[in-house]
Each structure stands twice: as C-alpha cells, then as structure tokens.
Amino acid sequence: MAHLIIIQESSFRNYLVNFQEVIRPAQWMYFETVLMGLIHCQASRTISGILRAVAVLVTVWDLSRFLISPRWSTPRLAEVRYRMFRAEVQPLVATAHESQRLQRSKKRGRPMATLVTGYLILDDSTHVKRFAKVMGGQGWHYSSTD
User: Fold this and answer.
1) Residue 49's domain spans which residues?
2) Within a domain: 44
3) pTM of the full structure
4) Based on the structure, what is the number of domains in the chain?
5) CA end-to-end distance (rounded Å), the chain
6) 70-to-26, 62, 73, 121 alpha-carbon distances in Å
7) Is residue 134 in a domain?
8) Taking Cα atoms as reference points, which of 16, 24, 25, 31 lies closest to residue 63?
9) Is there a contact between 66 and 27 (Cβ–Cβ < 8 Å)?
10) CB under 8 Å to 111, separation ≥6 — which residues?
C-alpha cells in the first residue's frame, strides 16, 4: 500500500529537517520520496519499488535523475548525520562520565581519567555478500572482510 508523505511520523519529519541545509528546496520532494520509500518498501528496493511504496507525483525518470546526477554532496549528508549522532550520544556519555567520577574512591594525587565505552551496531544484511559459505547447522555465514 502506498503511503502519503503528508502522513509522516513527527520523528521522521524532525529527522528530515536536519538535512535542509544540504538538500535544495527543488530536490526536497525527491529526497523525502527516497527515504520514505526505503522505509516502507517491502519488495525489491529499486526505483520502481520505492515509488510503489510512496504515493507521490514523482516519475521514475525524475527520481532516477535525482539519484544519478546529484546536486547534493554525500560527505555533507554524512557530516549532518554525524552531527545528529553526536548530539544524541553526548549527553549520555557526559552522564556516564559524571557517575564514574562520583563513584571513584578519594585517593591522594591526580584521579584516574574516566572511560566510557560505547558500541555502534550496524546491520549489513542488505549488502551483497559475494563470498557467502554454507555452515553446518548454522545456515549461511558471511565473510566480514568482504
């Protein structure tokens, strides 16, 4: 079923607003279409599949032109996303540092620096793995070095 872009969740809308400095207003509709299509697409993630998932007045030709000859910069998109990630994680890290600082024992001399370890878990299941091998009883094992 095709989803209207007007009926977006507020969290998705807030996510998109951060990219307004990178994507031009003329390209905004295509950017929204691609992201909404990737979220809601149940079939193959082709341009036609994306357009079937989102109910907009965008043609396959328009969307392919947007993706083939971008006037937006991938490094700038990554920079905006990294800025968003840091803004989300920094308060958590600061809280963890503060709790470690309060819990350490009072000793003479310079206190040890606090250390906060975080894990970033990425899902690579959508990437093509050319060197997959069958494992006994486990299904498919994919090479992490590919």
Assistant:
1) 3-68
2) yes
3) 0.64
4) 1
5) 35
6) 12, 12, 7, 29
7) no
8) 31
9) yes
10) 101, 104
What is the distance between the alpha carbons of residues 89 and 17, in angstroms, rounded to a whole number? 19
- Measured at the CA of 38, the angle between CA 32 and CA 44, to 5 degrees, comes to 140
Q: Identify the pLDDT of residue 3.
A: 56
β-bridge mates for residue 140, sequence order: 134
β-strands 139-141, 133-135: how paired? antiparallel
Which pLDDT tens digit goes with each residue over 29-71?
A: 888 888 888 887 777 778 888 887 777 778 888 888 888 877 8
User: pLDDT at position 99, please?
Assistant: 94
Residue tagged 């975080």 (tokens): 118
What CA–CA distance (Å, rounded) separates 36 from 38?
5
- The SS3 assignment for 73 reads coil
112 inside domain: no
The H or E element containing residue 97 is helix 74-103
CA distances in angstroms from 77 to 37, 64, 82, listed in the order given? 18, 19, 9
Quote the strand ranges of the chain, DSSP E. 3-4, 54-55, 133-135, 139-141
CA quadruple 16, 125, 67, 69: dihedral sign: positive
